[in-house]
Amino acid sequence: MIQKLRIRLIAMAMAAQLILLIVIVAFSNYLSYMKLADSADFVIDELMKEPYDSEPRDGQPEPETTPSPSPSPSPSPEPTATEEPEPSPSPAVSDPPADEAAPPFADPRDPWAPDGENSYDQWADWMRPKGPHPPQWGSGTPYDDVWGGRETAEPSPSPTPTPEPTPTPEPTPEPWTQRRTEELPFSSRYFIVSQDTEGELLYRNMDHIISISEDEAMQMTGVALSTSEEKGFCGNFRYRTYFEEGQITLLFLDCSQDLETFRNTLIANCGLSLLGLGCTFLLLMLFSGKIVRPVAESYDKQKQFISAAGHELRTPLTIIGADTEVLTMELGENEWLSDISHQTSRMTELTNSLLQLSRMDEGRQPMTMLEFPLSDLVEETLHSFDLLAKKQELRLTADIAPMVSVRGDIASLRQLVSILLDNAIKYSLGTIDVSLRQTENTVCLEVSNSAHPVTPEQLSQFFDRFYRTEASRNSETGGYGLGLSIAQSIVQAHRGKITASSPEEGIVRLTVVLPKY
Question: DSSP string spanning 52-64?
């Protein structure tokens, strides 16, 4: 039991994780693919703004540029005879005497001066200011003339300071996105093809790619135009179509590097997902036994209790039944003895059903698998229930396909058909329909009966042990709610499937599908 629960737990956990990983990987890679396509479309739109309108098309002359006339210099206005420029005022300074107009020695900076006459000391002494007030540079006060201490005329007025020019602000650097946009023609590999509506080539620009020849470019253009889509992928190239008056322009952008990165990422994601799946499998193998052990032990104890209780109850029930028969023979039949006998029979039937379920759950139910005609078995069982249906005024119809064979245990399948018919007769409100048909590999047995309306929740609980609807509990049909549970165990032992459905309101249908071999 523990092994079965471990296998189920591992299978369910692995299936759930596999589905989750597939969804996550598919969604993330879909987003990456769409981002790649959007980025390529943005680059294409930016590239179409620059090269297409700036380069001439094949067969069209370049537009002639007319040189703009250079502006002729405007003649400066000549002064008229009546207007004379006013002389700028200058201070009246007395000229130095002729003997002091120049130094009595040569300039020491003169390379042609004779030796001894261009002494730097003589020149510096002559240049030193004379008079009682040495000049105070930067003070603005009048000082004696350097030519011999004579007072000069009034100093000239200080000139009006010229206003400094306003510094021109440095140009603001362009944003990074603008610089990136300008770099696109230099960092992208693409080509442009333009043709008219009749397919005649108007323009082709292959200057930005060398891996594609002109013939391959025209073939890709034909493939792109045949799809009737505005944009898409053609191999490793992302293309986009622009429609203008009388012409169609396509720009193909090489996305091989981006697609290669996308493929590598996809492979890496799949590899990581499989690695995580393997790690989860190992963890489940290590800890699943501890997880399911409490449930398995509880289930095993439940089965042991049912088996032990069933065996313990069979002996007293047999004794009670035998004593009731003896009392009936001595005292005759009466109401109390009949009740004891009836309830003893019911308890015996319940005990036998519990023991059978316990044996089938543990795999101890003896079965002999033989190939036999199932259609004959169903017809024989129908005849045994025909009289009971007539007593309850029920209409029993059958549609049994002849020569329907199946491989299975005859006793178990006979019990299966009996349980289905008994359940239909107990809860039918008027009609019972039985059909048996076969397909290439399966056999289908259906038992339908009119009944009170049931909900989907009630249908899903039909095969639970001790389950009965409220209407059946209030009726005097008997039963313990174990019949359909036994039927389900028999079908599962034959590798089949049993389901409950309500094809229309007021109809309940039980369907059994068994493999033929």
Answer: HHHSPPTT-PPPP
